[in-house]
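Section 3.1 - Work completed
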Amino acid sequence: MMTSATPAGPLRRHAAKIALVALLAIPAIVGANRAVADRRGENRVLASLPDRPTDWATALALPAKLDAWINDNFGFRAALLRVHNRLRYRLFHEFPSVQVTAGRHGRMFLTAHGTNVPPFSAVTSVCAGDAVVRAGTPEYINRLFRDFHAQGLDPRMMIVPSGPVVEYQDLPRWISDRCAATDTPMGKLLAGNELDPLVRQSTIYPLKEMRDIRSRMMLFPKHWFHWNGPGLAEVAELTLPMWGKPRGTPAPAFGIVSTQFRSDVHNLFEGLDIKNTVEEADFAAAGVESCYGGRCFPEFKEYAETLYDISRFRNPKAPKRRLVMLTDSFGSKISGWYARYYSEVEQVATNNISQLSTDQIRRLKEYLFRDRENMDLLILYHDGGATTGTLQYGLERFHEKP
């Protein structure tokens, strides 16, 4: 006589369902507990937990907002994104950001300065074509020089050709020919008559020279947006004639050291540890005192850390003269090479200038522009910053009347 099997209990009958719900719940619980901590991992603003609905409109909008919050805060999201980004880069050589594009010959380019601007706008704005200089820029540059001269200062200006127009041969083929041309927005501005003659004779935009230099030595590390490398020594030398010093002026030689650096745009993507070997000047071996950051300027330590991107060099073997550099973020990469020609170099990037009070800027100017008889003033911005308004944003408070 056969006996019937004992009926399975409810837990056993639904074991598979319970296991599935538990597995799905783990990421949800982890996401809820770690949502705040993980919010800094991506280069964008993640969705926030929506407020409780107060009317029909907010109630109808709630599902979409909850869905966005769940997507952005799902447990293990950061780890999954890192794995996805690595696979995408290794299999297809693609970056998980509209801001960075893989070029040819192993080079990468910063192709957009934000996620809310057109793709490749950082390239098209500096290359030949239909890009134009921002309205009002020529008038502002003329005013900049006139105001500085009225204050007893005699500035020189270098506009740095950026990676796309110097390393154009490494861009994707569809745009490399356009960037190989020399009639760039900055080139046309300097060749035209919108700038005062004094501005044109006091400004250098060394596009052809830098293309020659990059064929012989590093100017732009392959995975960087900014410039760096021993080629900057030759670029610094290009500016000497603006102060009446011929190229080839005798100067102490600097040795070279090689250092591994992470890409200067690594914060734009998760999970990719991209590095470059960068050759830099060996200041210590040359007897040059080098310093980067707020600690370099105890004279205005109250706001030196706010300025952040600042540098200072002292070289007892160089001629007794001081160079003051007002720059964008390209400045601190070349400032040390000027220590071959100046006993003191003081470089201040203006990227954070809006965070300083009027009184702090007044005191900063008083300090930097001291002993004017024994100082030179160099304004240095890259071409994209000069033609799209960054130069005016950074410098206007330096020369405007109190």
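Second construct:
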Amino acid sequence: MADTTVLREGLRFGEGPRRGPDGRLFYSDFYEREVRALDLDTGAEEVVCAVPGQPSGLGWLPDGRLLVVSMRDRRVLRLEDGDLVEHADLGDIATFHANDMLVDARGRAYVGNFGFDLHGLIAEAGGEAPLLEPGWEPPGAALALVRPDGTVSRAAEDLKFPNGMGLLPDGRLLVAETLAFGLTAFDVADDGTLSGRTPWAALREHGIAPDGIAVDADGGAWVAPALQACAFRVEEGGAVTHRVATSQPCFAVAVVGHRLVCCTAPTSQPEVVAGAHLGKLEVFGLQGTPGNA
């Protein structure tokens, strides 16, 4: 039985949930090609923008303008007076679809990418089994740094499917490496460059292929495990402190006030979810958990 309450049904595939500047939940629906905003208290929802290239990661510049990753054309777009314009072109860095993004308080965006055709490999293999073998070595991918003026550089190399990200209370950047089954931390310099790459949590023994993550006030990370119908809270070193059951596999999480919001779907394979409405938003109350006392 799920620990969560289903808040919304009928999504195709929800991703990139974030608490917006106005307190609402913003999220992308890949295959509806929309970014939406949802008031968790009233249930009122609106379409913020349509993204033909398939939206994923979200964030905001210091002046409140929305940034959104356009996956298939490997760009970051900026919402200007109701219209999307190009903020950055990631084509020289992303070797397959662009993916999740973190935008810090200074407007610097860190953007991951698949690195290769993951869904095509899974379809060809008839399932995820080859990816779960400890000896399988996935191709590496670079993490992009997009500065507020839209200039792009490489922030880190050879990450194994860089996915969800969060900022730790000590200022380090935490990156989910989905296909390395772990979380990796980086020191962040004043100019936004990264160094001091350090394993933060090894999660293979728990079967956690970390997809989306959300860092809480105590420095723990809520992790969407992609292959399991639950969300986990993990601390540095890899200790799992909490497990929240969801109704179907969880691919992304956000902490919005005292709520954990989970984006769930039966699978991430496009041939299953792109033409259906099987995705859900599920919510769990965090009162009393670390970081949300």
